[in-house]
Each structure stands twice: as structure tokens, then as C-alpha cells.
Design a protein that fits this description.
The protein has 13 helices and eleven strands. It is an alpha/beta fold and 378 residues long. Bound molecules: guanosine-5'-triphosphate (GTP) and magnesium ion.
């Protein structure tokens, strides 16, 4: 993959902007006048837990995106992406996922249900949402001859949030107390998080109501100082390679192709959002929008083709689908069925789904397909 010369732009440890904890303390000390002013600052401000400090080395990263944009599939694929080293950092960093919480483990268990179905997921229940946590360890690889040199290590505990895209539809949320509860949890996560991972399907248009609520949220992030980075994951990237057959990986796994594809998506299908993304990117030098192409399905190992079968109007499943218990191929449209383990460990290579998290951890995007927002249109 092509290289970008500028790394560590993302890291803002020397930032002069106060964090939520110190901000709250200052506000309390300054009395009601400043508190009033603070209220005007952003719609998430009042939800922020007062004085709450984030433990060092941890990140709160809320995953949002429209219905069926691949949020859950992205989270499901992280471990496999690390294990298969199908990410951009393999040559330089040893990357591992450690400690996980119960909700992350539950997510992993869903693989047992969904992998035999070729990673076709049911639509999320509006009334369920959860906060998977995991620790990402990133250690620079030792190379021969560099004994004695300092090697960088990073360890970040991620707290993420995953809920249904329909939580972005106000009318639906208003209709049921369980939905409202989930939406309140989402609001709370957004108020406390530093990074938002926004999933947008690269080849599809999104529902108008959800798009307009996303715009509202983006306006809130612009006003508030809490969200420092917005990483836009352009999901289902491999679908752009269907027409290339076995050349799909070769055509798409480079910076120029990624930049073109993201620009095309923003200019034609996600037109409603690009203005808001740009405003957030330009709002302060300390904040930024980053664009990362990802695919939970990925490309077929040793073949290069997109690992996707499309059937019906927009239904997708893995092309290399495992046989079900009776030895039959599960979903329509899939390639011939494979033994479960062969499909899982030989053919399934999610594409770069862990990259956004390694980037958030290290601030390093050399050799990746991640672009700063303004590079997309440069
Ligand atoms: N081609 C392709 N399809 C994908 C990919 N990831 C997800 N999908 C498809 O999109 C569907 C929805 O994916 P989910 O991960 O459930 O999407 P979501 O954003 O979590 O959806 P909600 O929770 O209902 O809002 C899946 O059933 C797949 O068919 C991908 O990387 N490539
Ligand atoms: Mg989901």
C-alpha cells in the first residue's frame, strides 16, 4: 500500500484544549456565569458526567451509523482481522486484542450463529444496545540489527457502543420506552466519548431520516469540545471490486483507489453529510475527520476476489460460505460450501477493520489507506 509521510497528526497529547474532567472542575469553581456559558457550548455538554476522568490509556469510542451499515459486522471481524494480519500494520507492529468484557465476548459468540450464514446478520433489535470493551496492544516489531533501540508500545482499552441504526430515527425512538432507553444510552456515550467511529456504506445511499439525524449529531460534535476525532469507516469496501474478479484486491488495496472511491461516495451518495464532515474537520486544528475504507467480508485469500455474493436486491453474504450442519450451502448466492474451519481460517480475511483502532491508539497512519478529510478532495 502507498505511504503517507505524515504520521502522528492524530495524537494530540500536547493539546492545549482541556479535557472533560478539568473543564468540569473549572466550571464548578467559576460559578453560575460560566456554567451558563458552558451550557450553550454544545448539546451534549449537559449530559457529560461531571468530573469524570478517563483512565489513562483508555478510549471511549462510540460506533454510530445508519441501519445495515455494517457496524456490528465490523466489531465482529476485529479479532479475525488481527489474527489473519489482514491490516496495514502487520509489517511494523505486533497487534493483539487482550482483555475483553462480557459484552465483547457475547459479540464474538454471535460469530457461531452468523458465520455459517455467510455473515448475514439480522437487523439489530431497536431495544438492545451494548458496550463491548477490549484492549488493543500494539508493539513495534523488532528487526534484526536494532537491538538496544527503544521500541514503542501502546496499550489502549477501548469502550465502544453498538446499537441499531434505527436509533437515529426520532419517531421510532419516541414510540417505545425501551428504544428511548437505548437512545439515552447512546446520547450518554456520545457525551462522554472522545472518538466517534461513523460507519457509512461506501456503495449505498442512506435513509433520509437517519441522514438528517446524523447531521444533527455532527452539529452537536462541532459545538462540543468533547469529540476530538471522527473516524469515518467506509464499510463494504470490497463490493466495489466485484466487477474486477480476481483483480479486485490489486485494484482496490492502494491509496489512490481508496481516495477516489471515498470521494465518489461523498460526492454522489453521501452528499448530505460531506458539508458537516468538512465543518467538523475545519472547526479546530486539534480535531479532525479521518476516512478509512474497511470491509468485514474482505477479499478471498490467495484469490484476490471480493469475498461477497450479492443476491436479491442488496442482500450480501460471504462467497466462501461454510456448509451448514447438513452439509448444504446456507445462503443463496454463495460459492460452493466449505468446511467451517476452512472457510473461517483460510478464506475469511476482513480487510483493514482493525486499522481505525490501531490508528486511534498510535496516531500512525503510514502505509495505511486512511486519509485526512481534506486529502480526499486535494
Ligand atoms: N458486502 C458486505 N456486506 C456487509 C459487510 N458488513 C456487513 N455487511 C452486510 O450488511 C448487513 C448488515 O450488517 P450489520 O453489521 O448488521 O449492520 P449494522 O450497521 O450493525 O445494522 P443495524 O444494527 O441493524 O443498524 C449484513 O447482514 C451483511 O449482509 C461487508 O463488509 N461487506
Ligand atoms: Mg448492528
Amino acid at each position: 500500500m502507498a505511504t503517507s509521510d505524515d504520521d502522528s497528526e492524530f495524537h494530540d497529547e500536547d493539546s492545549t484544549e482541556p479535557d472533560a474532567g478539568s473543564e468540569a472542575a473549572r466550571r464548578d469553581a467559576a460559578g453560575p456565569g460560566l456554567q451558563e456559558a458552558a451550557k450553550k457550548r454544545g448539546r451534549f455538554f449537559s449530559l457529560r458526567k461531571r468530573g469524570e476522568e478517563q483512565p489513562p490509556g483508555s478510549k471511549r469510542c462510540t460506533v454510530i451509523g445508519p441501519t445495515r451499515s455494517g457496524k456490528t459486522a465490523l466489531m465482529l471481524s476485529l479479532r479475525r482481522c488481527v489474527d489473519a494480519r489482514s491490516h496495514s500494520y502487520g509489517a511494523r507492529y505486533v497487534t493483539t486484542i487482550g482483555h475483553t468484557n462480557e459484552e465483547y465476548d457475547r459479540l464474538q459468540q454471535w460469530l457461531d450463529t452468523y458465520f455459517p450464514r455467510g455473515l448475514r446478520l439480522d437487523a439489530s433489535d431497536l431495544g438492545t444496545c451494548f458496550v463491548p470493551e477490549f484492549t488493543l496492544r500494539v508493539r513495534q516489531r523488532h528487526r534484526r540489527g536494532d537491538a538496544g533501540l527503544l521500541h514503542s508500545r501502546h496499550k489502549t482499552r477501548f469502550r465502544t457502543f453498538d446499537g441499531a441504526g434505527e436509533l437515529l430515527e426520532k419517531a421510532k425512538v419516541a414510540a417505545d420506552p425501551r428504544f428511548r432507553e437505548c437512545r439515552e444510552r447512546l446520547n450518554q456515550e456520545l457525551a462522554d466519548c472522545d472518538t466517534v467511529l461513523l460507519c457509512l456504506p461506501i456503495g449505498l445511499r442512506i435513509n433520509r431520516d437517519q441522514e438528517s439525524e446524523l447531521k444533527n449529531l455532527l452539529e452537536g460534535f462541532i459545538d462540543s469540545r468533547q469529540v476530538r476525532s471522527l473516524v469515518v469507516c467506509f464499510t463494504m469496501y470490497e463490493t466495489l471490486g466485484i466487477e474486477y474478479g480476481r483483480l479486485a484486491y490489486r485494484e482496490l488495496a492502494n491509496r489512490l483507489a481508496a481516495r477516489r472511491a471515498i470521494r465518489e461516495a461523498l460526492e454522489h451518495r453521501l452528499l448530505g453529510l460531506d458539508n458537516h464532515l468538512e465543518q467538523f474537520h475545519l472547526a479546530s486544528g486539534k480535531r479532525g475527520v479521518w476516512c478509512a475504507p474497511v470491509s468485514a467480508y474482505g477479499f478471498i485469500a490467495r484469490n484476490g476476489g471480493a469475498n461477497v455474493a450479492v443476491f436479491g436486491k442488496t442482500e450480501h453474504c460471504l462467497r466462501t460460505t461454510p456448509a451448514d450442519k447438513d452439509g448444504k450451502a446456507a445462503p443463496t448466492g454463495a460459492h460452493s460450501p466449505y468446511e467451517h474451519d476452512v472457510a473461517l481460517t483460510d478464506w475469511w480475511r476482513p480487510f483493514l477493520t482493525i486499522d481505525p483502532f490501531v490508528f486511534i491508539t498510535t496516531g500512525d497512519r503510514r502505509g495505511t489507506l486512511i486519509h485526512a478529510y481534506d486529502e480526499i478532495f486535494a
